[in-house]
Every structure is written in structure tokens, then in C-alpha cells.
């Protein structure tokens, strides 16, 4: 009586982590470095805007976002990427990127591709919603390992021609969660050209785009526009969770071609929950402000530098280009996470919990994901314990 489509899903990462660690006592003061929940302060004006608009909880909100919010999002896209989008036909709001990434597949994935079951391609490791979205639309997920040999980005161009011919959607995350790798302009050009050749859409998960050191990551819609690609080729996803330290606001957006957005908005009008109006009012203001984003980025930069100093002598350590995770090399992620918990009280996530087994192995097995979201002082304590416990340096 129950569907089989989700029967092969593994337990989610955090229940697996609790099963691994919670029967053991921590070996010291507990430091949580597992969940990517930003701890930096969000903009001070958020409370003021929320209080001013609190009466609007008494109104039904527009499903696609207020005109002011969509206009501010479109203006931000232009400032950030130099791309002009129509706020009325190319932008819609979503309850965070996870909801948007899931429902985009529902709205955009065809029932067949070249007469066969469609494929949805995604990096491995990956944000787990990509897989459940593929299964929900009757597509077959294809996991493309992202390893040190591929620069921790998936080699989608290396897939066989028959796989590419059946590919309907490609989920792609840059900056990558968990590795922090960034797709450069050449990478995006190759992927978009591949999409043009094989007629698949690229769902670009860019929610870590504003946390970086050095040059700002190039965007998928930016490169597609420069290439004069099909305007429906790329759909981008952003939120205020990481950019503005507002994960509880559940405020994000989707932008792309007008036909893709028409279909996404039509689907959401039946199945999606709009953001409450006070949340939309806060979002209007937050997307229009860049000062707090620069301050936030500076705090993460300090922690990037801290990580480089602590782990600089660890063989295989890869300084993250962006995002707020470390992807630390170990022999076995589960064993290392358990050892760390039992001996130091530091809680981290085994990389295998974010990836799937493939014929080439599980690309997350030899890694730990470590979140750099706490204060600088707490982060330094945690990272130092990790180094001393696992690497003996």
C-alpha cells in the first residue's frame, strides 16, 4: 500500500550521525561543527521591519512574492552578475532553496527524454534533496563523483553519450557543498554548451555564492547570458540563509527563463506555500543591503585563514575557496568522527553521509565535513582539537 520509489533512500545524514555517536559519552566540552546553520548576527534592522509589518500576518501573501521583493531580487541579480531579468516573468520567491530545488524538478522534468526514462544528473557528494526530487518525478538519479582528481567538481562532460542523451536535468552546486570548490567561467561554459548540445536544463544551486575569499564566484545565469544560450537553459537558486545569516527566515528565490518560471509558478500556485508577508517585507530590505554581507564575508575570511594555519601541514588539506565547510581528508570518515567525539567532544559529519556508493566507490568515505559557522574562538578550539586528535601535528 506504500510507494516503493523512496524505499532505497538511506537514513538522512543527521539521524545517521546520532546513531553513530549518541551511545558514547563525549570526551570533552561539546563543540558542534556538523550543521551549516550560520551563527553570525543577522542585520539589526530585521526586527524593526518585522515589527512594522506584523499586522500583515493577517493577510494572504502573494505566492510569487510582492512586486517590491521581486524588483529588489532582480536588482540584486543585476548588481551581482550584470544580468537583467524581468521581475514579473523571470523571478519567483520560495521557502528556502531546498523547497525551490525540489519543486523545480516537479515543474520542469519531462516524463520521458528521447523516448526513455529521463535521467537527473547530480554531483556526488550532494545536497540530498536532489536525489529525492529525481525519484519523485519518476526519473533515475545519476551520481557523478566529485573527487580530488576532478577538482572536487563532477566531470559531467565525461559521461557517456547515451547517458547525456537521456539527461533531462542537471543539479549543480557552486560553490560546492561540502567541498568549497568553485566552478570557474570555463567550467560553466563547458556545462552550458553540453546542455545546449543535449538539451538538458541546469538547476544551479548557488546558495553559498556570497561567502568566498578572493574573487566573487561567477554565476551560471551570467555565463549563459554571455554565451547567448537558450534563455531556458539555466535556472538559479539563491537564499538569505547563508548570505544574510537568516536560515530561519526560509526566504529564497528562483530565477531563469520566462517559460521555466511560468511552469514553476504554476506548480507553486497549486502546491507551494507562499512566504508570509512580514517575511517578504524583511526580505525586500535584506536583498537591497550589501553592507552586512561584506561584514559577514570578512568574518568567514578570518576563519578560512585560521583553518589554513591549523591544517596547513596536513597532507591533502584543501583550503576552501568558498562556502563555510572544511572537507578534511581522513582514512575513514565514520571512524574518525567517532574517535573525535569519544576523545574530544567535537562533533563533525562523516563525508559518506553526504554521498552515495558508486561503482567507483563512495567519494565521501575518506572525508569529514566540518562547519565553520560558530564564533572565531569556538571554531579555533574545535579545529585545534581535530588537528591534535586526528593528525597528531
UniProtKB/TrEMBL annotation:
<dbReference type="InterPro" id="IPR050881">
    <property type="entry name" value="LL-DAP_aminotransferase"/>
</dbReference>
<dbReference type="InterPro" id="IPR015422">
    <property type="entry name" value="PyrdxlP-dep_Trfase_small"/>
</dbReference>
<dbReference type="InterPro" id="IPR015424">
    <property type="entry name" value="PyrdxlP-dep_Trfase"/>
</dbReference>
<dbReference type="Pfam" id="PF00155">
    <property type="entry name" value="Aminotran_1_2"/>
</dbReference>
<dbReference type="GO" id="GO:0008483">
    <property type="term" value="F:transaminase activity"/>
</dbReference>
<keyword id="KW-0808">Transferase</keyword>
<dbReference type="GO" id="GO:0030170">
    <property type="term" value="F:pyridoxal phosphate binding"/>
</dbReference>
<dbReference type="InterPro" id="IPR015421">
    <property type="entry name" value="PyrdxlP-dep_Trfase_major"/>
</dbReference>
<keyword id="KW-0032">Aminotransferase</keyword>
<feature type="domain" description="Aminotransferase class I/classII large">
    <location>
        <begin position="30"/>
        <end position="386"/>
    </location>
</feature>
<protein>
    <submittedName>
        <fullName>Aminotransferase class I/II-fold pyridoxal phosphate-dependent enzyme</fullName>
    </submittedName>
</protein>
<dbReference type="InterPro" id="IPR004839">
    <property type="entry name" value="Aminotransferase_I/II_large"/>
</dbReference>
Amino acid at each position: 500500500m506504500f510507494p516503493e520509489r523512496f524505499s532505497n533512500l538511506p537514513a538522512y545524514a543527521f539521524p545517521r550521525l546520532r546513531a553513530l555517536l549518541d551511545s558514547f559519552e563525549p570526551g570533552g566540552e561539546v563543540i558542534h561543527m556538523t550543521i551549516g546553520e550560520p551563527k553570525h548576527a543577522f542585520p539589526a534592522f530585521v526586527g524593526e521591519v518585522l515589527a512594522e509589518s506584523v499586522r500583515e500576518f493577517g493577510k494572504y501573501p502573494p505566492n510569487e512574492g510582492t512586486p517590491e521583493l521581486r524588483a529588489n531580487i532582480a536588482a540584486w541579480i543585476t548588481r551581482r552578475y550584470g544580468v537583467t531579468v524581468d521581475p514579473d516573468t523571470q523571478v519567483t520567491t520560495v521557502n528556502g532553496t531546498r523547497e525551490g530545488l525540489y519543486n523545480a524538478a516537479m515543474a520542469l522534468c519531462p516524463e520521458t527524454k528521447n523516448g526513455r526514462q529521463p535521467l537527473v544528473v547530480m554531483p556526488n557528494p550532494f545536497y540530498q534533496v536532489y536525489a529525492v526530487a529525481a525519484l519523485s518525478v519518476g526519473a533515475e538519479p545519476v551520481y557523478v563523483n566529485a573527487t580530488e582528481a576532478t577538482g572536487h567538481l563532477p566531470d559531467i562532460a565525461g559521461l557517456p553519450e547515451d547517458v547525456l542523451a537521456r539527461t533531462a536535468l542537471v543539479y549543480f552546486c557552486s560553490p560546492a557543498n561540502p567541498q568549497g570548490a568553485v566552478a570557474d567561467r570555463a567550467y560553466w561554459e563547458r556545462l552550458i554548451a553540453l546542455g545546449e548540445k543535449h538539451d538538458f536544463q541546469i538547476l544551479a544551486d548557488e546558495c553559498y555564492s556570497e561567502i568566498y575569499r578572493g574573487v566573487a564566484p561567477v554565476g551560471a545565469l551570467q555565463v549563459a547570458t554571455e554565451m547567448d544560450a537558450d534563455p531556458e537553459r539555466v535556472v538559479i537558486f539563491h537564499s538569505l540563509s547563508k548570505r544574510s545569516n537568516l536560515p530561519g527566515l526560509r526566504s529564497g528565490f528562483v530565477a531563469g527563463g520566462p517559460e521555466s518560471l511560468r511552469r514553476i509558478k504554476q506548480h507553486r500556485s497549486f502546491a507551494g506555500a507562499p512566504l508570509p508577508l512580514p517575511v517578504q517585507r524583511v526580505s525586500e530590505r535584506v536583498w537591497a543591503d550589501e553592507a552586512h554581507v561584506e561584514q559577514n564575508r570578512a568574518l568567514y575570511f578570518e576563519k578560512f585563514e585560521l583553518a589554513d594555519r591549523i591544517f596547513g601541514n596536513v597532507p591533502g588539506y584543501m583550503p576552501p575557496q568558498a562556502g563555510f565547510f572544511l572537507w578534511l581528508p581522513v582514512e575513514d570518515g565514520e571512524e574518525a568522527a567517532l574517535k573525535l567525539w569519544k576523545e574530544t567532544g567535537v562533533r563533525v559529519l562523516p563525508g559518506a553521509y553526504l554521498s552515495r556508493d558508486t561503482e567507483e566507490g563512495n567519494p565521501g568515505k575518506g572525508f569529514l565535513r566540518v562547519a565553520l559557522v560558530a564564533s572565531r574562538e569556538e571554531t579555533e578550539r574545535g579545529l585545534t582539537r581535530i588537528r591534535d586528535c586526528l593528525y597528531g601535528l
